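Hi Q.,

Before the meeting this afternoon, I wanted you to have the FE2/S2 (inorganic) cluster prediction in hand. No need to reply - just skim if you have a minute. The sequence and ligand are here:
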Amino acid sequence: MPDDQWADVGSVEDLKRRFLQEISIGKTRVALTYQDGEFSAISGVCNHVGGPLGQGTLDGDYVVCPWHYWKFHHRTGQGESGYEQDQVPAYSTKVENGRVYVDLSSATKRRKQAHKPHPLARPVVRQAGPIRVVGISTTAMTLDHPRFSGSDALLEAALEHAKSTLQLETQCIKLRELNFRSCEGYYSKSAKACTWPCSITQMDPTDQLDRVYEALVHWADVILISTPIRWGNASSLYYKMVERMNCIQNQETIANRHLLKNKVAAFIIMGGQDNVQGVAGQLMTFFAEVGCQFPQFPFIAHSRGWSAEDMERNVIEVQNSRELREGAQELVARAADMAKLMLCGQLPEHPLARGGRKAHQLDSEPTG
Ligand code: FES
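Predicted structure with the ligand bound:
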């Protein structure tokens, strides 16, 4: 191999200070390692969704991708045990006169081993059948010691009406019954590190938010969210869920893919104290950004105001209010009607103009 194919990537003294680092040779990103007195080089681009291997960590002989922790041998580029058919290119290296050289022309082939896709990754196809309503309770409480919850009670009233009177399919998910992790900010590493299905869901089979994703993306036509008001905001469980829904919104950005198509969202907001408008604004903004539609009057709400501290009275008011129950029933009926319109009305497909929406295209694409 002629010498002029070797790229000088720096001095030994400088490069041996770090066991793993990312270097660029032209447009090619390389993960350079220094171990046992030797330099090795493999591609800096992960086989999964392109994570920067050179910015990862070393685990024994393996470079660990910083995005979702796939591992590749620092010398051969081969995947870890069980994934030997996964391989990123490896390059020859040499040291001469205190300089480190990498030969890009020596690259071995990149090979990708098929990883079994997560069930949520299947195409989104609405199955035939009546309108389907998923109710999601975001109220927190100890399962062993349940208490009366106004938002839960009205969600149940809406779902019962949908099932018994409107003859719709329903399911109720109570977030407090699920064991799921907080969003860990894969998006903060890179938009492309935030994957669909959610990175946590793909890596952690014990995480139960897959049930919510399954219902929202693959099953429901109507998404009915109930929340109490907590210090002027929706419940902490609501935010824990929607942070994990970044992977749904992010598909708009990185893949032009609209996972919540023809879905209608509506809300039940209950609080002893105030800020219904603020909470409704939060809920509607998020669900608008993931592409949901809203019925006319998309939420019902109740609160007694800032200075009402006599919470027992608030509970009694909700329990005895026929108006609120009827309001919940009418809300789900409006949402179901809107869903029918969406599904049967054959709304023409419009290319989505990105301007003004959050899902702007990425400004730059990584190279290498
Ligand atoms: S593990 Fe490398 S990009 Fe996902």
